[in-house]
Fold this sequence. Notes:
Blueprint lengths: L10 E6 L2 E6 L22 E7 L8 E4 L17 E4 L3 E3 L7 E3 L2 E5 L8 E7 L4 E2 L1
Amino acid sequence: xESPEACDTCLTLSETExxxxxxxxxxxxxxxxxxxVESIPNQExxxxxxxxxxxxxxxxxxIGLATKEMPLDKFVGxxxxxxxxDSRGYFWGHEVAGCSHLNKHPFVKVPKFGEGxxxxxxxxxxxxxxx
Length: 131
């Protein structure tokens, strides 16, 4: 399933049925992104939702939503119009009352996640609310 448009060059993708594994294959440090094969439907209503099971984690992992214009070597949630749930316990990219900021990027503190956890990510297409 490997596709140069789907992930950063420092990642290797493998797929078995509906399982996809992203493996960091180079020694350098930095942000790496993987795009879904299917995009969010362009609809006025409904819920778009997906889940990710964390089988192993060796660094910070962010699960989120981004536009197709987002650079693959940037942190989802830091780029305008993107949102992410970070394994260190932060929700990035959504400006809400009482949120904190780091380098002008909004975030809120939320529970951490790690190995064995299933992380759900969704958006209400009618109200444009992220969960």
